[in-house]
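In the design runs reported in the main text, the only information available to the sequence generator was the tokenized backbone. The following block is the verbatim input for one such run; it is reproduced so that readers can re-run the procedure and compare outputs position by position.
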């Protein structure tokens, strides 16, 4: 009887937590994960090659360029702004790298640093102008979209592309794989153990201060689900060429940015700024610096994403600045669960959103469907995500939580 009573108490605790989360802003990543599972099930039923080790390996590399740019977009969205220049900055990064390395003979590692620094500087400049003038961020970055795209075209020259070594550092970003099974399974084990340790640490810390916290049973269930996904992914990737270097770097970017937002004073200030600049200023948040910094992060990550795109093509081209990278990056952040109204979201949103978008693209390619249909489906998914975000915001406002 005592055991049954404890289980009933845990179920009531879990139910209360779920109801509270629903009132305060939705069910988190659950709807996105469900949508991703449905998409994978549908495409697998239509083409048995969709979940093949080869296609999953290709998918895991294809998501990295857009996903990295989307992580930067998340930072800007969290303060309630929008960066429209990320696609052009990604293209500029590739063009700057290729120009310095191929045309001027600069070592690859130094050209990479210069390209990323250039993206960060451009982002910081846009943030500075936004802070000083008060002009909406999307207008400033729209001007940046045009200016950086023009500079990219100028660097690429009349040939509109610059090819670089297929055996060098940048090319290896998307071609290098770790074939040893210990690499994939080691990352899976490390990620699972890390999640479990952090979750129980958070639970203990919140319980000690009397704050709402996750039941132990929920943490174990989440950890088990993560372990299944992680080890299954490691097994599938191991059956082709192993763990891609690109995916490993992307996961490192996600973990680092998540820790930055959730575990540091800086991250808490970013989230507080998304709740309103005036209230953040009264709380002692350096609003001007925070605004500049998030655009700097967005520019730097756009540059890194641009290098991954260039790596995939082994050349710097106009492709990143064409507009599709920008659209997909913003769509990935929003579809993954980051609010357009600021103050709510996670860098893991970028992973979930880009998986949705790239899975649709991969499935459509396997089925031989025209790209136009892919755009319509992605647009429909984005519309659903934005509508859900707006309804959640309206519900929160009606409850006095906005």
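Verbatim output:
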């Amino acid at each position: 009887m005592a055991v049954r009573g404890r289980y009933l108490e845990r179920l009531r605790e879990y139910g209360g937590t779920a109801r509270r989360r629903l009132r305060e802003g939705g069910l988190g990543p659950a709807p996105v994960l469900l949508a991703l599972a449905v998409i994978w099930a549908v495409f697998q039923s239509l083409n048995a090659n969709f979940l093949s080790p080869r296609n999953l390996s290709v998918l895991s590399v294809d998501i990295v360029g857009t996903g990295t740019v989307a992580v930067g977009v998340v930072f800007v969205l969290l303060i309630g702004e929008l960066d429209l220049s990320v696609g052009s900055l990604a293209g500029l990064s590739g063009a700057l790298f290729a120009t310095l390395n191929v045309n001027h003979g600069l070592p690859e590692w130094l050209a990479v640093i210069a390209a990323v620094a250039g993206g960060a500087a451009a982002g910081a400049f846009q943030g500075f102008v936004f802070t000083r003038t008060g002009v909406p961020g999307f207008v400033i970055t729209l001007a940046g979209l045009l200016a950086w795209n023009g500079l990219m075209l100028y660097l690429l020259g009349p040939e509109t592309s610059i090819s670089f070594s297929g055996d060098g550092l940048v090319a290896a970003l998307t071609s290098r794989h770790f074939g040893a099974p210990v690499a994939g399974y080691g990352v899976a084990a490390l990620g699972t153990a890390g999640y479990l340790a952090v979750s129980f640490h958070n639970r203990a810390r919140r319980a000690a201060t009397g704050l709402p916290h996750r039941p132990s049973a929920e943490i174990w269930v989440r950890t088990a689900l993560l372990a299944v996904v992680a080890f299954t992914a490691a097994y599938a990737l191991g059956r082709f060429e192993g763990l891609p270097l690109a995916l490993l770097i992307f996961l490192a970017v996600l973990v680092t940015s998540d820790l930055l937002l959730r575990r540091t004073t800086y991250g808490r200030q970013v989230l507080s700024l998304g709740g309103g600049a005036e209230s953040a200023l009264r709380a002692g948040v350096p609003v001007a610096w925070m605004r500049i910094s998030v655009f700097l992060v967005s520019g730097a990550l756009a540059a890194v994403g641009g290098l991954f795109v260039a790596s995939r093509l082994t050349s710097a081209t106009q492709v990143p600045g064409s507009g599709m990278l920008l659209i997909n990056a913003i769509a990935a952040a929003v579809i993954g669960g980051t609010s357009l109204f600021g103050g709510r979201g996670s860098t893991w949103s970028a992973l979930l959103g880009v998986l949705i978008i790239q899975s649709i693209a991969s499935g459509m390619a396997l089925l031989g469907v025209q790209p136009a249909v892919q755009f319509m489906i992605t647009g429909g998914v984005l519309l659903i995500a934005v509508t859900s975000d707006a309804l959640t915001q309206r519900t929160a406002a009606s409850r006095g939580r906005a």
